[in-house]
Amino acid sequence: MFPEYDVIVVGAGHAGCEAAAAAANLGSKTLLVTMNMQTIAQMSCNPAMGGIAKGQIVREIDALGGYSGIVSDKSAIQFKMLNRSKGPAMWSPRTQNDRMLFAAEWRSMLEKTPNLDFWQDMVSGLIINNGKAYGVVTGMGQHIRSKSVVLTNGTFLNGIIHIGEKNFGGGRAGEKAATGITEQLIDIGFEAGRMKTGTPPRVDGRSLDYSQMIIQPGDEQPDKFSYTDTKPLTTQIPCWLTHTSDEVHDILRTGFDKSPMFSGRIQGLGPRYCPSIEDKIDRFSDKNQHQIFVEPEGWDTVEIYVNGFSTSLPEDVQMKALRKIKGFEKVKMFRPGYAIEYDYFPPTQLGLTLETKLLENLYFAGQINGTTGYEEAACQGLMAGINAHRKVHTQERFILTRSDAYIGVLIDDLVTKGTEEPYRMFTSRAEFRTLLRQDNADVRLTPIGYKLGLASKERMDKVETKIAESARIVKFFKETSVSPDEVNIGLAALNSSPINQKVKLSTVLSRPQISIEFLKENSNSVKQLHDSLGASANEYFTTAEILMKYEGYIHKEEEMAYKLSRFENIELFDNFNYNGLQSLSTEARQKLTRIRPRTLGQASRISGVSPSDISVILVHIGR
User: Which of 150, 411, 584, 616 has the fewest Cβ atoms within 10 Å of its own Cβ atom?
Assistant: First the structure.
């Protein structure tokens, strides 16, 4: 009934969709297996993409040739660039999305992808022979063979949903859990654990009083995620901000004795940076209020996502507490919040390609690796799909380093350090974040995506044009002067000291309070240059401004990345006998033997491996 596939992807969440699209677009005959074809790419939690550091990841996925940025743009209802008040390394794009349109766009793009087939069923096990994965076994008894398998099971592996004292099996509200895979992998020798996440109630927007809330509009000039020709929004839907209170907290505390989190019924650790409302009250007892973001679920629905109110307390307690929030006095609930506990596999059991060390041709991506978030899952899926394809076709493995992309930081963190709580990306995790900006993801990664065969020639041409035009602007600013008559009135308005003679444009731009927009408005030569660049002028000007204003920081990070790359280029063999090096600390021997780092650079980032341990290895290998 089934042909033999090159790649089988299990699960059609954000990781699975990107994995299937990547493998198929690269030319692998790919099968995407999902328990429900109607929930492909469903936004299980908040209806939004991007945010701090996550927005950079979406841009990187798009630059490499993935789909998440395009789908996010096509289903956006609001766009915001976060952290505009900070330096460009911190700027992070975020969209509010139409939940149903997001899933529909994803499915449409997948169905138009060549080489991609679909099958609706639960995968209950793997076909394994001689330490290699050769396909999957489904709940209906189908044996589907393949040359590689990518598992992207999300929260479905032995998932248990908790609401107050009630709990029942499920991978998501209204959907059953997946069983069989965890048990089989543990029998082989994999280590598994439990994690927990949660989601807030969904409510009827018609029952809310928005006059008591603070409006949160999108950007006046909205940008977009994708470097392709997707269109920025012309109309946006606002979000709203309100707050909890001491009264709300007191009501919530009445349900703590029935809370599965506090009673010990939930064993898995939840996300540190996205705690439930009961966890916030318990951990931050000195706070008398917490922010609640009221987020619409789409253009044509009244459903509202109550961001900041994730909870697994009993339904009646949730409702009583909600009605004490400003603007929620007459709220009607569509469904309560709940917590979900699920299996994951500590990611130190993976290589940097996301292939498992115990089973060849088996890849893990997404929450199965202990991450949380759509964006973190999607980029892992993209990388797993690329590497599964490349291995099947005997091509070199594809790895992004920490200085290449946030994607490289995320995977290196997971594989090298592991995680015992849901891992979330932050800008602070990246030591080269001035290099890894959201505005230059295409410059960094599209040439790589083009070489891989994922990014089109048209994309590559656009990047080459952007690089050339940005360089031309920088050269113009360093060679062209501006007179006092042109800028002094404007400088005075900004409390910036006047110039007494002609100076180079780049010198004026280097002042902290001066922007390239200011010079465009006050210098005819700059305005003429801008107008000559056409529709992409603003993009080129922004890139050039960052390159000039942060030139010193960028060069410093480039030098640091180059120095650290020495260790990244020293490879360590899989059969390296660390136990034979008695000069290594006991902890270093144990961790190096378990994790089996690919390079000396990766070894140096393992917790418990000291600089002296690295020196011992260097001496041993003759460096």
Answer: 616
Q: Are strands 30-34 and 116-120 parallel, antiparallel or unpaired?
A: parallel
- Give the tokens for residue 564: 């650290």
Cβ contact 591:609 at 8 Å = yes
The separation between CA 53 and the C-alpha centre of its own chain, rounded to angstroms, equals: 7
Q: Is residue 307 assigned to a domain?
A: no
| 367-407 per-position pLDDT tens digit | 999 999 999 999 999 999 999 999 999 999 999 999 999 99
Record the pTM: 0.93
Lowest mean per-residue pLDDT among 125-139, 328-342, 503-517, 563-577: 563-577
533 and 575 part of one domain: no
Whether residue 475 lies inside any domain: the answer is: yes
> Is the distance from CB of 598 to CB of 567 less than 8 angstroms?
no
CATH number at residue 509: 1.10.10.1800
Q: What is the pLDDT of residue 273?
A: 66
DSSP annotation of 536 reads G
Reported as a pLDDT band with limits 50, 70 and 90, residue 267 is low
Residue 520 lies in a domain: yes
Q: How many CB atoms lie within 10 A of CB 584?
A: 23
Asked if 341 contacts 266 with a C-beta cutoff of 8 angstroms, the reply is: yes
What is the CA angle 184-190-195, rounded to 5? 95
Q: Contact, 594 vs 348, CB < 8 A?
A: yes
Domain of 597 in residue numbering reads as: 569-620
End-to-end C-alpha distance for the chain, whole angstroms? 56
Closest of 237, 235, 253 to residue 245, by C-alpha: 253
Averaged pLDDT for residues 362-368: 98
Mean pLDDT taken over the chain: 94
**CA angle centred on 409, ends 157 and 437, rounded to 5°:** 120
User: Which residues on adjacent β-strands are paired with residue 330?
Assistant: none
Instruction: State how far the Cα of 178 lies from the Cα of 157, in Å rounded to an integer.
Output: 5
Is 521 in the same domain as 579? Answer: no
Q: What's the rounded Cα separation, in Å, for the pair 217 and 219?
A: 7
Domain assignment of residue 467, yes or no: yes
Which tokens hold the place of 487? 């800028």
Name the 3-class secondary structure at 47: coil
Question: Do residues 471 and 550 share a domain?
Answer: yes
Q: What is the pLDDT of residues 256-265, one digit of tens each?
A: 888 877 666 6
CA angle centred on 241, ends 235 and 246, rounded to 5°: 170
Residues 477 and 531 in one domain: yes
Q: Which residues lie below 8 Å from residue 582, measured CB to CB, with a gap of 6+?
A: none
Q: For residues 578 and 251, give the distance between their C-alpha atoms in angstroms, rounded to a whole number.
A: 56
Judge contact between 136 and 122, C-beta under 8 A: no
- Kindly give the pairing relationship between strand 239-243 and strand 338-344: unpaired
Q: Distance between CA 113 and CA 92 in Å, rounded?
A: 29
The CATH number of residue 595's host domain is: 1.10.150.570
List pLDDT tens digits, range 47-106.
999 999 999 999 999 999 999 999 999 999 999 999 999 999 999 999 999 999 999 999
Residue 525's φ and ψ, nearest 5 degrees, are -65, -40
